[in-house]
Amino acid sequence: MDALERSAISSTGVPSVMMNYINEADYAKTLVMANAKFLGRVVNHQLNFNDGATEVYKKVMRFSTSLPKEIIESFIFVFNPPKTLSNVNMTDLINNSDQIVNYMMDAITGKNAAGGDDDNLIKDEVYKKIVKEVLPMLPWAKVEEILKEVKIKLPKIKAEKAQTQPDGQ
Fold first, then answer.
1. CA-based torsion, 8, 10, 11, 12: positive or negative
2. What is the pTM of this model?
3. What is the rounded CA–CA span in Å between residue 63 and residue 102?
4. Which of the residues 5, 26, 79, 151 has an alpha carbon 20 to 30 A from that of 117?
5. Cβ atoms of 90 and 84 closer than 8 Å
6. Given 3-state DSSP classes, what are the helix, strand and coil percentages for the chain, each rounded to the nearest 5?
7. How far, in Å, CA of 148 to CA of 29, rounded?
8. Does residue 86 register a pLDDT over 60?
């Protein structure tokens, strides 16, 4: 019966380390990292399926509803991301990913390359894209939305600060 259970669970893509040490607390860190890897796999699948699921739902809406074409075309389906890991585990995952991304950046752009402004901008953009690829489970879209909102409100914030501070400070 145990073999059948292991076989059934292994076929789902759950890392084998999770099954081997599921009842041993000493391997909690190993399990967390295996879970993080599995979580990344799930998120990658979700990201890959979002576009296809959106198209399927649009086709269903086209043939089974009387919604206007503009509304149907503006519809976007997005899978909910899995629940995040605890803060400590997430910090470990981010630190490990940061090391990987920095290594990749050094390998691609050169460690000692002295670049101009364009080269630095390119490095920044490549870094952002690689990090989003390595850590897709983070809420990147929400962070970018918040950044845009703050940039729009920045002049108002500066003006309010200037009004509340006495001259010369």
1. positive
2. 0.48
3. 49
4. 151
5. yes
6. 75, 0, 25
7. 37
8. no
